[in-house]
Specification:
Elements lengths: L13 H9 L37 H4 L15 E3 L1 E5 L4 H11 L4 E4 L1 H6 L1 H9 L3 E4 L12 H19 L5 E2 L8 H9 L3 E2 L22 H14 L7 E2 L2 E2 L3 H14 L6 E3 L5
Helix pairs in contact: 3-9, 6-7, 8-9
InterPro entries: Glyco_hydro/deAcase_b/a-brl (IPR011330), NODB_dom (IPR002509), Polysacc_deacetylase_ArnD (IPR050248)
Enzyme class: hydrolase
Main location: membrane
Length: 274
């Protein structure tokens, strides 16, 4: 009895109402909902004017604010938290096969409705030793949603994952990195830790699939090369952002990981390991 795929869930659903009775939202700060409360789906949010955003909003999108509990990098130099968003898709098994060959484990931030459509692929990822985490039910900009709808987005995805792999996820990544202190508090209330990615470690690989494309394989690989130039001089490790939702993004992800496997002093791991 899941919500329709890729649609923001209805909070009047009896299951959502039951969750809302169980979850304590009393510590969630009363901060403005972004975009005037008009829900943003399938595109990155634009920032509200400074008059709307409160100094204590803690917005990642507009203030690049990260909270002390946000996971944004691995602690030690040379550690790479490898992550893929928006799956599982029909392209994911090809990536899984490649990761298995190299004995590399990653964190997959999955969309709830894609889990329902591709349960065997998710189970295969989990059974291969990968870490499974939440990327919402329908990929909205979470700061544009009311509290109850955020609960529904997260809890439906947690339920879908638990049904497939038998384990409740502990981590979530907000689509577009779009979080603030209100969204963080709701994630915390449902038992999820917020993960973003390290600044300048976004592959922008989704641009391979945009119309017209804003990236090429070469431009994405150049971005990866810049990571490899910089990681040894940083004071900590890093967490990257790639996607496994389309053949093009998976093909370039495989090229990246094949190159990365040959880089000395690089330790590739899941987010919980780092």
């Amino acid at each position: 009895d899941y919500p329709p795929a890729d649609e923001v869930p209805d909070t009047n659903h009896p299951q959502v109402q039951a969750w809302l009775k169980e979850i304590d939202l009393s510590n969630v700060p009363n901060l403005p909902i972004s975009n005037g409360g008009v829900i943003i789906t399938h595109q990155a949010p634009k920032c509200d004017p400074p008059t709307v955003i409160k100094p204590d909003q803690g917005s990642w999108t507009c203030q690049k604010f990260t909270a002390k509990d946000d996971v944004i990098f691995c602690p030690n130099v040379g550690e790479w938290g490898l992550t893929y968003d928006d799956g599982p898709s029909e392209s994911t098994p090809k990536l899984l096969a490649n990761l298995s060959e190299l004995n590399i484990k990653a964190t997959f931030f999955v969309i709830g409705s894609h889990v329902i459509n591709n349960p065997q692929i998710l189970k295969s990822a989990y059974d291969s030793g990968h870490n499974i985490a939440v990327h919402t039910w329908s990929h909205p900009a979470l700061t544009s949603l009311p509290n109850e709808t955020i609960v529904a987005e997260l809890k439906w995805t947690m339920k879908a994952i638990k049904e497939v792999i038998g384990v409740t996820p502990l981590y979530m990544r907000p689509p577009y990195g779009d979080t603030d202190n209100r969204v963080r508090a709701i994630a915390h209330a449902v038992g999820l830790k917020t993960v973003i990615w390290t600044l300048n470690f976004d592959s922008n690989d989704w641009g391979l699939t945009s119309n017209p494309p804003t990236q090429t394989d070469d431009s994405v690989l150049n971005t990866f090369d810049s990571w490899m130039k910089n990681f040894t001089t940083m004071g900590n490790g890093f967490i990257s952002l790639e996607h496994d939702f389309a053949p093009k993004t998976v093909d370039v992800a495989i090229q990246i990981i094949n190159k990365a496997a040959k880089v000395p002093n690089l330790k590739i791991m899941t987010v919980p390991q780092c």
